[in-house]
């Protein structure tokens, strides 16, 4: 705190005797005192404003917290009311469903009795079908035995045909035959020649040959005219043999 200002003592006679009379009013000290007072007043004002602001912020925060809590409680109360409404509606639905279920049970009992009667009739029909299926199975087994016998005979004929044609014949796909020839002695090492014949359509087609044959189109045209696959295989063997010489 600044020391109190004292009233200066003036020597009026000496001032008047001076060539340039002048009174020192000590304004510097007064201004310094005034500045200190204003600074102290500003510091106090700022401190008071800070305290008021802090209290106001705390009050606003507490007020907001209470409002949020009240809103939360109100929301929970509204949710409880909605749940209560839903539960009452569910209870009404369950009561209505219970009445409907009782009616359905009575209807189902009547339907079950009717089903028992129908099942008894179906059991009799099933027994008839079983007898018919057993008869069909016996006929199927007889046909299968016949087909197996034919297949064995065809296999023997195929082997005889392969020996006659000096070839190997096998099915590679539906309606397609792979015919292979093995030539030994014509070259330094054994060579295999083959072709794939498609017999599924109205006209025969050769899908692939190894190696390629220049006269293949003529041979295929002759095959479609004669429909003689045996002769065609013999001609293909001769052409392959000629191409290797």
TrEMBL record:
Question: Gene3D superfamilies given for it?
Answer: Chromosome segregation protein Spc25 (3.30.457.50)
- Quote the cellular component terms of the Gene Ontology held in the record: Ndc80 complex; nucleus
Q: Which GO terms describe its biological process?
A: cell division; chromosome segregation
Fetch the InterPro entries from UniProt: Spc25, Spc25_C
List, for all copies, the residue spans of the domain called Chromosome segregation protein Spc25 C-terminal. 172-240
Out of the domains of life, which is the source?
A: Eukaryota
**Keyword Cell cycle carried by entry:** yes
Q: Which CDD domains match?
A: RWD_Spc25
Q: Where in the cell is it found?
A: Nucleus; Chromosome, Centromere, Kinetochore
Name the UniProt key words of this record, in alphabetical order: Cell cycle, Cell division, Centromere, Chromosome, Coiled coil, Kinetochore, Mitosis, Nucleus
From the UniProt record, list the coiled-coil ranges.
Answer: 56-153
Q: What protein family does this chain belong to? A: Belongs to the SPC25 family.
Q: How does it assemble?
A: Component of the NDC80 complex.
Its function? Acts as a component of the essential kinetochore-associated NDC80 complex, which is required for chromosome segregation and spindle checkpoint activity.
Q: Which PANTHER family match?
A: KINETOCHORE PROTEIN SPC25, KINETOCHORE PROTEIN SPC25-RELATED
**What is this protein identified as?**
Kinetochore protein SPC25
Q: Which organism is it from?
A: Hericium alpestre
